[in-house]
Design a protein that fits this description.
three-stranded mixed sheet; 11 helices; about 450 residues
Length: about 450
Amino acid sequence: MPGLLKFLILATFPVGVLATIIPLTYQSSGLTFNDWVSLFTLCFAPLIAHVLAGVPTIVYLSQDRPTWRQKLSLYNPTTILWRYFATADRRLRAKRWNAADMSSSNIYFWTRVGWDGSEALIRKSQAYCVSLPRSKHATLISGSTAKTLIVTLQGANSLYYLLWSNFETTNANNFITAASVGSLFSPLAIIGLLRLVACFWLTEDFVYINCEEIQLVPMHIRAHKPSTIIHEPLDLSDAWTGEDYRSPSTWPSWLFRTLFLLLIMGLTILCTANLIPAFSRNTTYTPTVFCMLLFYDILLVITVTVLGYHFIRSRNTTTVLPCTSSLWYQAYTDMLFISMLVLIITASLENWKSPCGFYTTYPSNWMFCGATLSSMKNTTDGVFGLAVIGNATTGLDFNFAQPQGEMSLLYFYGSCQGWFYENDDLTGAEGFRFVNTTDRTSFLLYGA
């Protein structure tokens, strides 16, 4: 692992050298409670959906229980991606696929030797099965299908926005400049699209019991013959004949492994290319954008490395990532979740709402709304017009120029209260105030 860490540092170091990092600036004081609710809803929705949909049912076949760190490793995106791959690969190699195969493939078994999702456990674990799915594939009306639909919609929306931002010229529609608390985990939703490779064999329509509960379940409702009941912890020392599955070394399995790894590598290139719009010394990032860049680079590079290592060794006979219980992987998982927390805190400090209604972490003097000014909000929404000093280009295909020091109110939508003077000595509106007065190119007007 020291070699991998050195590679990650060298891989991200040129980015830090070429990029100009804007100092961390506190800009979120103007956000309302409703703004925060909206931002954190958008922030945690893809994260929660990806984790809840990716971690299967846990069944304890041992009196011992895993530590919180051993459990936390199951929520690592790398672990979840391995589960999707291993489930689809198992179905590809199965000689006779049935409901028992599918249900056992959707469980993480905790045994005396740690997490186990091997093919050797499928038959033996049936002693703890109370109910099996009625079908050998996922049904249309089920919880797993609903999770797949949610993950797919979130991922498709994020992928569309990520790709389309390459063709947008305004900062408000660019993935980087529009990065905010609400979009921190959008790339994670894109990664979640890999669930689709296994979606037909992901299910929750089964019931298993833990080892200490086996005596509490009446004999007549168990999903196995009475003679197969196991009253002691499972003995996993027996050699597995592999008669139900083809060898992991078969060419269809190798082909699937290659395609799956290429998809992840493609996501790595896509995210990196969009997170680094220009490899030049003029590239500028906020701390939020740079931390997000670093987070996804490390996540995807380690994922490709770990999965590729186990692919080469043909260790794809288990739905649990083989290195899940190792100390270095637990440390890697801890680092990921700590990085998520740091990312959220950093973005929360820098986040502000632009005059055109978009959230961003870039300073207001970056002209976030671009040269085309627009505002169609009424007084109940807060922003209802844009006041401009100097020349401007509008969204109505006409330009205008005004003398130095004069101000024009564009795209006004609402009503005014107060007194207006027609002479040149004084022009005012009672009940209005300017904000962002340090920005001498545009002012925001709020109703009192």
